[in-house]
């Protein structure tokens, strides 16, 4: 703070350094906590089906959000990484089952492209996930 020399005790300027320090500390805290609050699970609304059944074995679940983001076991993948990951799973277990859990608002064309990528990886057993009505 600067004090006017003519009038004792009159503040002519505001020191903003403490305000900037607090703002930067809060920014760092928010950035660190945002990193830990990661979107580990995609927000998906499954379509409803009257004849939904439960799966007995443990399949790989491929989640697809309405914006097209894909995840397997919490790991986000693009199409090339998806095919490579599924090809490794088929090499380890030729009878692996993949369950596709896609958001109900996705376009049919996107689902067909996704199923084509799953088949290109060599997966023979594919199921589509739905919720029971």
Provide structural commentary.
The chain folds into two domains: 1-37, no CATH class; 48-132, 2-Layer Sandwich (Nucleotidyltransferase, domain 5), CATH 3.30.420.270. It has three helices and seven strands, in the order αββββαβαββ. A hairpin with a 5-residue loop joins strand 2 and strand 3 (70-72). It has helices at 17-36, 79-92, 108-120; strands at 48-49, 60-64, 70-72, 75-77, 97-102, 125-128, 131-132. The longest helix is centred in the N-terminal third of the chain and has 20 residues, at 17-36. Helix 2 (79-92) packs across helix 3 (108-120). It is elongated and about 85 Å long. It has a five-stranded mixed beta sheet. With 133 residues, the protein is α/β, with parallel strands linked by helices. 35% of the residues lie in helices and 19% in strands. The model has no long low-confidence stretch (mean pLDDT 80).
């Amino acid at each position: 703070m600067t004090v006017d020399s003519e009038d004792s005790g009159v503040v002519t300027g505001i020191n903003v350094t403490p305000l900037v320090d607090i703002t930067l500390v809060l920014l760092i805290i928010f950035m660190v906590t945002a990193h830990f609050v990661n979107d580990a699970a995609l927000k998906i609304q499954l379509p409803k089906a009257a004849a939904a059944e439960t799966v007995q074995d443990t399949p790989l679940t491929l989640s697809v959000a309405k914006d097209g983001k894909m995840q397997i076991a919490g790991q986000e993948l693009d199409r090339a990484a998806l095919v490579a990951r599924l090809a490794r799973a088929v090499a380890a277990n030729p009878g692996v089952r993949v369950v596709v859990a896609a958001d109900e608002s996705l376009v049919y064309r996107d689902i067909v492209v996704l199923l084509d990528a799953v088949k290109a990886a060599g997966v023979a057993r594919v199921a589509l996930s739905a919720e029971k009505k």
